[in-house]
Write a structure and sequence with these properties.
heterodimer, A: alpha/beta, seven-stranded mixed β-sheet, five-stranded parallel β-sheet, 14 helices, about 40% helix, globular, B: about 375 residues, ABC transporter involved in vitamin B12 uptake, BtuC
Chain lengths: ~450, ~375
């Protein structure tokens, strides 16, 4: 054969490329056709000329989560529940007769991509609100974009606190709505000696700073702490250290994220550290993760959240039933998914009260209307506070045989959010109130 | 005191044995063949997924069987990974021998493809791929029998490729539309899957205040068996002899009538199969997901390089040394040993966390390689540099 790159080879390679791309497209089309990522009926009616939809254009909102990469596992389900909430509102007639059109963007587990996509949603798609982000890193990456554009983000995940932006509504737990009550509960019921295990990044380190300060204030002791690099699965040294630090049993507070949890719980069991002597309290293990780790390794261990699938309220029954009907019986609901569901509904109520969804450059009316919005959420009543966080009921659950949680403790009512932590010296005495005038920075001022 | 020392030795050895079983396949592929196989971790991942599939199959068969699935899973993991390795060698790597950079990039690409494959594999994809392969390679085989094949080769390939891709795509979309979710639902999805050791491997052997996990003991035994098996194969069988001779001097072996291509394929399949066994083993300890392999790939290369490329004994010693070092530093035992000398204690306490012990181990390896660039057991002989 000659080595020249002639017409024949060109045709050969060209057709090969074409064939491959067609094959790939076929596969891609096959996988997504079942779920349907955008609300296509609404999208078709959106260029309304006044004749098709008398009630006006659709309201455009953005959904910004990772649909690919390491975080896709967790964030995909949050997208599902956000879309469920939007679909429910649309089938009930929309907001003031206008349908909601959701534009989904993929942040690809990459923080600069999040910022870029947020900019795209605001500038090109002209959305009036964005629901999205999971990791603190992605939220910190988009924060400057939202502040620059004076736009609005609903963030649905529990986080480490120490932030209060005018442009973000936080519908997940602040530390005082998840970590602090769980530490109090552990001190009262499980023991005074704590070993802290976490992944090596911002959330676990901040969370453990808070826990250490709290333990010191309340008479507990931190006997050791250790961090695993993300993705590390060799936990034998940590387990040996736990055993020598807590020879007679004690509490393990776990802020590990992702794959390390699997290795941690499997090897804890192998080493004979059982939940009766070494109860593990986790803050990143919810229903979805229990399924992936394996119920037999987690049975009897604890988790702190605001919502479990097993919460007994009529709203939750309806929520779980609607979710399973839309996405399949084998799916489970968890805390961030519920928080995303709350986000959409609180935003909807705020828009209804303000009378209009606003424009991308002017969202002041909706923002003000959001304060004080109450919603009967699956977890119980919640209320949007003027510090942009919501009041939430705190619960502690124990893993049962079926992989769901037995709720063994819950606060009598919703706990008010405290974004600036009162145990950490730097932020002690600070608070946040965006209706407050007469202070330099309503996001962080001395009480 | 005795149980705690025993516990320490056991833990160090068990970390080492996990490193060893993961690196063993690479020691053969990288060490003996000189192929930098970045997809090694993904072959492990395939082994882990095979374990998951076998486990689910046995779960369906009922109780007495479920307890023994792991033995069957080890064998299946070996076979599946070896077959994939064979396809990889025949399809990609054999064209790239002697070009380490291209091999590195190509196998890295393969590793990304394998990761995405397990995320999105569903019936549509599998049926589509099978139809495509059947049509394309079958068609090619038919055309090849024509006397004027060389003349029409380019056209034949182009037409066959387009045709079979089109038909495969059409079959796929028809399937997707008729059967819906049953066909388009991913088998595994992006989510990690759950592999549980059989009941007799849960828990551990209590010794005093400590407990030696059965899963780790199982992995140690499996590692020993693998090492013995490899030694037996390389030293006592005819093919082992051929592999060793090709490793030492490829040209001379070829001259003496050893089918070097077959030997290459076999060696690569063997290394891949060992990766499959390693995947089965680590599934008992850690997570099984598309990224599982990524967690091990760096460590395995480290072990092979420290041990000395081309020497199995180096890999064994290297893995155990690194394992014990990691454990001793990470748990702070060294800090206790040096308790009388204050600065040393502070030094080792600082490194006695999981993240920092990695730093110290890597630092020691870098220093070690400065003095012994060829590793613990360098290969000697005139053909080494060739």
């Amino acid at each position: 054969m000659t080595r020249q790159f002639g017409r024949r080879k060109f045709l050969l390679y060209g057709s090969a490329t074409l064939g491959t791309s067609m094959l790939l497209k076929a596969c891609a089309g096959g996988t997504t056709s079942g779920t349907g990522t955008t609300e296509s009926p609404a999208a078709e009616s959106s260029p309304a000329t006044g004749t098709t939809a008398a009630s006006g254009d659709a309201i455009k909102v953005g959904i910004l989560h990772s649909l690919s990469g390491t975080m896709a596992i967790s964030e995909k389900s949050v997208v599902d529940s956000t879309q469920l909430a939007i679909e429910q509102i649309n089938s009930a007639g929309g907001i003031g007769g206008r349908q909601i059109e959701a534009i989904v963007e993929d942040g690809a587990s990459d923080w600069p991509t999040f910022a870029e996509k947020a900019r795209k949603l605001i500038d090109e798609d002209q959305v009036v609100v964005i629901f999205g982000c999971w990791t603190s890193a992605s939220r910190k990456a988009v924060l400057p974009v939202f502040e620059e554009k004076n736009h609005m983000l609903f963030y649905p995940v529990q986080y480490e606190g120490q932030e209060c932006s005018k442009n973000i509504f936080y519908t997940g737990a602040a530390p005082n709505q998840q970590i602090e009550p769980s530490v109090d509960w552990l001190l009262e019921n499980k023991g005074k000696e704590f070993y802290l295990v976490g992944s090596d990044y911002v959330f676990p380190r901040t969370a453990n700073t808070i826990i250490k300060a709290q333990l010191e204030a309340k008479g507990g002791t931190t006997v050791g702490e250790d961090y695993l690099p993300l993705g590390n699965t060799e936990v034998a040294p940590i387990i040996a250290k736990i055993r020598s630090a807590l020879p007679n049993g004690g509490v393990i507070y776990n802020t590990l994220n992702g794959d390390s949890n699997v290795a941690f719980f499997k090897q804890m069991q192998g080493a004979g550290l059982t939940p009766d002597r070494y109860p593990v309290m986790s803050v990143s293990v919810a229903e979805e993760e229990v399924r992936a780790i394996g119920t037999e390794f987690l049975k009897g261990h604890l988790a702190a959240w605001n919502y479990f699938q097993t919460v007994e309220t009529p709203e939750n029954e309806a929520f779980v039933a609607a979710f399973k009907q839309k996405y399949g019986d084998d799916r489970v609901t968890n805390d961030p998914m519920e928080a995303a569901y709350i986000s959409v509904n609180i935003w909807k109520q705020a828009v209804e009260q303000a009378g209009s969804p606003g424009t991308p450059s002017d969202l002041e009316a909706v923002r003000t209307a959001a304060y004080g919005q109450k919603f009967a959420a699956p977890e119980g009543p919640v209320e949007m506070k003027t510090n942009h966080h919501i009041s939430k009921t705190v619960r502690i659950g124990e893993v049962r045989d079926d992989g769901l949680f037995e709720i063994i403790y819950e606060t009598p009512g919703p706990v008010d959010p405290v974004p600036w932590n009162q145990f950490v010296a730097d932020t002690k005495g600070f608070t946040c109130d965006w209706t407050k005038t007469g202070v330099d920075n309503p996001g962080k001022f001395q009480i | 005191m005795l149980p705690s020392i025993l516990d320490g030795v056991f833990n160090g050895l068990s970390i080492g044995s996990i490193l060893l079983i993961a690196a063993l396949g690479l020691a053969i592929v990288f060490g003996l063949m000189g192929v930098i196989n970045m997809a090694h971790g993904e072959l492990m991942m395939l082994g882990a997924y095979t374990t998951f599939v076998v486990q689910n199959g046995f779960r369906r068969m009922g109780e007495p069987w479920l307890q023994f699935y792991i033995f069957f899973a080890v064998i299946m993991a070996f076979i599946v990974a070896a077959l994939v390795g064979l396809i990889l060698e025949r399809g990609v790597i054999r064209y790239l021998y002697g070009r380490p950079l291209e091999t590195l990039l190509a196998t890295w690409g393969v590793s990304l493809m394998l990761q995405q494959f397990v995320r999105s594999v569903n019936w549509v994809l599998v049926v589509g791929l099978m139809v495509f392969c059947l049509l394309y390679f079958g068609g090619l085989w038919l055309v090849r029998r024509r006397p004027d094949f060389e003349r029409i080769r380019g056209w034949a390939i182009a037409i066959l490729l387009a045709l079979s891709a089109g038909i495969a795509w059409a079959v796929g979309s028809v399937l997707a539309q008729t059967y819906g979710l049953a066909m388009t639902k991913p088998w595994f999805g992006a989510q990690n899957v759950d592999v549980t050791a059989p009941r007799w491997l849960l828990g551990g052997l209590p010794i005093g205040n400590y407990q030696l996990p059965y899963t780790r003991m199982f992995i140690m035994v499996l590692t020993v068996l693998c090492v013995l098996g490899i030694y037996w194969f390389l030293q006592r069988t005819a093919w082992g002899l051929r592999i060793r001779s090709v490793t030492q001097n490829r040209n001379m072996s070829a001259c003496l009538g050893i089918p070097t291509r077959k030997v290459d394929a076999l060696t690569f399949a063997l290394g891949s199969g060992l990766a499959g066994i390693a995947g089965c083993a680590v599934s008992l300890l850690g997570s099984v997901g598309p990224n599982t392999g990524q967690n091990y790939i760096v460590n395995t290369f480290m072990v092979v390089v420290v041990g000395g490329v081309g020497k199995l004994v180096g890999t064994i010693v290297g893995a155990l040394t690194i394992g014990i070092l990691d454990y001793v530093i990470g748990t702070g035992i060294l800090a206790l040993l040096f308790a009388p000398i204050q600065p040393l204690t502070d030094f080792f306490t600082f490194f006695a966390t999981t993240s920092m012990s990695k730093v110290l181990v890597f630092f020691l390896i870098v220093v070690f390689l400065q003095f012994r660039p060829a590793g613990l057991f360098p290969q000697k002989g005139r053909t080494v540099d060739a």
